[in-house]
Amino acid sequence: MKKENPFEIDFESYIREGEPDKKEKSIAWSIATGLQQVDGLTPSPYLYETAKRNIEGEISIEEAKKIIDSYYESKTSRTEDDDDTEEADKVSTRITELLSEKSFSFTPNQLLSIHERLFKGVFYKVKAGKFRDYNITKKEWVLNGDTVLYANADLINETLKYDFETEKNFDYSKLSKEDAVKHITRFVANMWQIHPFGEGNTRTTAVFTIKYLRSLGFNVNNEPFEKHSWYFRNALVRANYTNMQKGIYMNTEYLEKFFRNILLGENNELKKRFTHIDYDEYIEKFGDNQKSSVQNLPVNDKNLPVNLPVNKVQAKLISFLKENPSYTYDDLAEKINRTRETVRVNLRKLEKMNLLKRVGADKNGHWEVIE
Fold it and tell me: 55: part of which helix (H) or strand (E)?
């Protein structure tokens, strides 16, 4: 088995070479940790150590949960970054627990239950397991700052019941696997568009979807959720966005590719830049290759892409590095009023998220922002 670095586990080695029990646990953990990307979160080394102990059979998933909870309860000092890491660690463990359970009910109440179990005690401004009672908008980088039109708060319960009842009565027996994937894609897109919760909708949708797909007899490939969860969210956005004035219409193409990889074993390329509403125009103007990015696409007034999956500290670091790519750790620490170690840790996270790249030597090199 390959040796993992301090921030990761080589889940694929467990999946390829491990015993059935280890394989199942590794799939669950890889999905759980990968899904944190949708909110720009990165689990801690301690979470990965705990996950490895669970995969190896040293501790149960229930014990893993208690260990993570106790770890954060015992911390005597905290930084702003600790809140994000705590959320990533706790929610990763809870997703793993949910995916390890065989029970499932295809009802809106199951969706509520998943949200409550994932986020109870984690979200403080949003009630876990409760539908939102206010309307929302969200600026999306993939839409140049525009928003999807989400369901009105007073219609959430009614809309969910309708969509679930329609899907429950749908007859899959006459469909090919390819057509079944198309139908599932549209159902998941519709469910996500309702956005029934104040926060945590994409992770809740993903967990519900995986359990639903398994209940239909599908073997769910973990790799897309593990490595492309930000693409997954962008694809959900594009499947629910129309702007006739700009000639843009709801497009499930991106989401279908994601699900075809999961369910049909295809290997469609899932690049975030593909989903941007200006991507075709970008290709026409700049061309495309494996190393190109959307760095030439529009950004907001503060010179930061809208809705990047980063926390506030990381967003500030990106902004300052766009201003001066040669800033040192000490320069950045002074700029954002944080410690040098906080800067170092967050720059490393941004590198792991493929949003930042170090060019040249540590002493005389510079930073390259990848959007």
Answer: helix 45-55
Q: Dump pLDDT digits (tens) for 344-365.
A: 888 888 887 778 888 876 667 8
Query: How many residues are listed for the chain in this entry?
Result: 371
Of 45, 42, 63, the closest CA to residue 54 belongs to 63
How far out from the chain centre does Cα 292 lie? 22
User: Which tens digits make up the pLDDT trace of 205-220?
Assistant: 999 999 999 999 999 9
**Locate tokens 């309708």: which residue?**
162
E strand segments, 11-62 = none
Q: What's the CA gap between 328 and 7, in Å, rounded? A: 23
Would you place residue 283 in the very low, low, confident or very high pLDDT band (cuts 50, 70, 90)? low
**Could you give all domains of the chain from N- to C-terminal order, each with its CATH number?**
18-102 (no CATH), 104-290 (1.10.3290.10), 312-369 (1.10.10.10)
Q: Which pLDDT tens digit goes with each residue over 221-266? A: 999 999 999 999 999 999 999 999 999 999 999 999 999 999 999 9
**Helix 340-352 × helix 329-336 angle, to 10°:** 110
CB 23 within 8 A of CB 14: yes
Going along the chain, which residue ranges are E strands? 356-359, 366-369
CA-CA-CA-CA torsion sign (237, 241, 247, 253): positive
What tens digit of pLDDT does each residue of 53-81 get? 999 999 999 999 999 999 999 987 776 66
* Phi, psi angles (nearest 5°) of residue 367: -100, 145
Amino acid of residue 231: Y
Phi, psi dihedrals of residue 59, rounded to the nearest 5° = -135, 155
Q: Please give the Cα distance from 242 to 147 (Å, whole number).
A: 10
Residue holding tokens 């908008």? 137
Quote the pTM value.
0.78
